[in-house]
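SUBJECT: A protein chain and its fold
Encoding: whole-number codes for local backbone shapes
RECORD BEGINS BELOW THIS LINE
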Amino acid sequence: MLDTRAMQRLRRIKQLGFMSYVFPCAEHSRFVHSLGVMHIMGLMCDALQSHDCLDSQEVIKLRIAALLHDVGHFPYSHLGEKVYSYDYKIRRNISNIDSVSGKKTPYETSLLSKIANHKKIKIVDHEHFGAKVIENDPEISKLLKDAGISPEEIGEIITGNISKSNLENNPHSYIYIQLLHSDHDADRMDYLLRDAYQTGLVFGKIELEYIINNFRVATISSIPKGPKDTQVVVIRANAQHAVEHFLMARYFHYSQAVFQKTSAAFEVVAETLMYKMLLKQSDNVFFKSVESLENAIGTDDYYDYTDEFLWTKLQSFSTHSRDPFIQSLWETIGQRKKPRHIILCKDIASKGSSEPTSNSTVSCQVIENVSKEYYRTKCVMEKHQKELAKKIPMEYLGYIEMDFAIESLPKHVKAEKLEELSIDEHIRDSIKIVDKSGDVTFLATNPTSLINKMVNYRLLELDVFIVDPSKKYNVENIRDGIMVLADGC
């Protein structure tokens, strides 16, 4: 499986996109990450198999799913994924949807801002695309079928969308999902350790083997609304503090690495340039849509679709363009001329206690206690970008909003509401602890847990920046213009 062309392609796709522009050693590939996830999945399976929770055939399937979990990644990883997802959304005329109210917004923002804050569509994300690669790549599908393994089942484990028949016939189906889709899955454990090491940040040093050795399988009969016969992965109470440390390490990984303002802005610039190219290139030069890429699975064109290929296409497209904005985008990433930051707002805000209201127009309206500076700056960037055109052409101005919660609960849900969620929502994501008597509880609702005190809060960051490689615009003047407009929000 390692020697298939689809897997070898991952050697030429960076794990962290443009993060190496800030952290120079962050040059590792999706290939080495995939090896690491397979290794950690093996450790998890060993721990569960030693307690007769999995059989040898299940271990093989899970290790293969771990190895192949990123086989559908696009060039520069999440960069390409976001562009194709945004393009898919635009082509289906479902753009400008407010992230809170779910309604179309009447406000016009720059392409930089739209792409930066686009939430990927699952059906075209790298996991669902990877499932299609597994089913349609001739090498991978043949290897799996020859081994008596269903390519479709491997795809279901990777996407987390186990078919109804498999859920009904296999009591371990939710175990498969958790090991690759939860707050303690093999993917997250590997990228935390690997990314921290490669970026030079120390937050990723966790007690990996101790946590995994405390994995067990239990029924969820003690959890309200849970089916009595569903088996899930739980963690023994002995390892509670090690798990809390792991969640805290992941929180700092996001706040210090993923949310790093300069690398995040570079990523948005590259995404915008790639989307501009998608609009202008023909299919015989470049994959204009995720559908055209899907049709190429198993061909030389698909195997060659890597970071280097995309970089070369972006360079050729930009150098032949007469559009000054496209030229500025390319100069920014091609010569590493940093986007200029206007305002950076940070806040730690408590979650709202209810669902978003239908008349919400700004997403932080459902967040309690958000700072006035944060709210007003977001209000300006969502509603008044056109009014800033006197200071700078609108297309050169962008903003990125990033948010992160320490546990993977829906944004509006507080810990005390966790047990009211549907079974699929909390089985997949939330960490569950089992005590000596066999009672299973959520870590987020445990009053003795540090996570219980933090789970109702979210880290929020809002970065306003401009693409200005020649430094011809007055940053202070733009900032003052935003502040004047903010007073009216």
